[in-house]
Amino acid sequence: METITMKAQFLGKKGFFSRFFSKNYWGQVELRPDGTIKMTGYDKVYRAKECDQFRNTYDEDDKVAYMEVNMYEDEEDCYRFVLYREDAIAFFAWLIRQEPGMFGERTLRSEYDSFRAHLEGPVLNKLRQWQAEDDKVIGLPKDDLVWEEVDEDFRKWIIADCALIHKANHDDIHELGGASHLDPIGREYGRWILRDSWEINSRPELIETIQDMIEDKLLWQLQRTIQNASWGYLAGFLTLRETLNVILTAGQRLQKVTRSWEGLGKGYMRSYESYLGYDALYDSRAAALEELLESEDSPYRQVPFDMELCRSW
Predict the structure, then answer these.
(1) Less Cβ crowding at N or C end of the chain, within 10 Å?
(2) pTM for this structure?
(3) Phi, psi (rounded to 5 degrees) for 177
């Protein structure tokens, strides 16, 4: 996306003494492609995640009249501005593009039903508009294949293979990529995780990464290839057919280096420790693996790891 510039009304900076020095004024907010926010009159460049406390007012048609946004460095240093109507909607949609977990699931779809009721529809429509523009640039090959047409056991195998990461990330373990590709926020999540974890921002970059990794004979790399392909589908960088072809090839090679879901999980954890060491993410993955191995309704119990993987599409 290019830089988006919108008109904003800046309020006095919070703090006891600020009332004597700050006055409201009109200026601009720049939303930059790198995920930063520049506000007229301030040298500080903020990141999206520093936005907090959205206060909204709605008109008689239940549409957003304006949104007050707080930008926090700390409790004593808070800058505020107000956006009106369509700019408020676009701003929130832009935030979701930067941090879909924080601003999508945890804010837009939070427990505050009135907030979701007023904002979800307009924000998702704006995301769909931007994603349609993205699609023209990405230029995916035509593909009429749908998930339900794929062999059921192979679908279960894919879900089980990716379950450890999805459970550790608190994603939907029953969805390819961890979220629905029909949900605009799910698509933004796919792009965010590729961007944040892999510095992948485009279809060519994803394909190059997959090509580099899929020839590897290491369990660690083959498993991550499958995961990247599923996120690529969620992000709109790969068609379903392309995704399945990658997973089939990597999955068949994966079956040659381990023989069970337990072996896959433990092998992945050993590699994680070797490459990245012990951290909070290691702990969450270890807990997820333990639950998957013990749970009666675990995806691991739905299909054998060593089942024959073959093309059915």
Answers:
(1) N
(2) 0.91
(3) 90, -5
HSE of 312 in the Cβ direction (CA atoms, 13 Å)?
13
Is pLDDT above 50 for 311? yes
Expressed in percent and rounded to 5, the helix, strand and coil fractions of the chain are: 55, 15, 30
* HEC secondary structure over 290-306: HHHHHCCCCHHHCCCCC
Task: Please check whether residue 288 is in contact with residue 160, taking contact to mean a CB–CB distance below 8 angstroms.
Answer: no
Q: How far apart are CA 107 and CA 185, in angstroms?
A: 12
Alpha helices (H) in 139-255, listed in sequence order: 152-168, 184-198, 203-214, 219-235, 240-254
C-alpha radius of gyration, the chain, whole number: 22
- In the 8-state DSSP scheme, what is residue 64? E
Dihedral sign of CA atoms 60, 62, 63, 65 in order: positive
Packing angle between helix 219-235 and helix 184-198, nearest 10 degrees?
Answer: 140
pLDDT tens per residue across span 43-98: 778 889 888 888 888 887 888 888 999 887 665 667 889 999 999 999 999 999 99
CA distance 313 to 292: 29
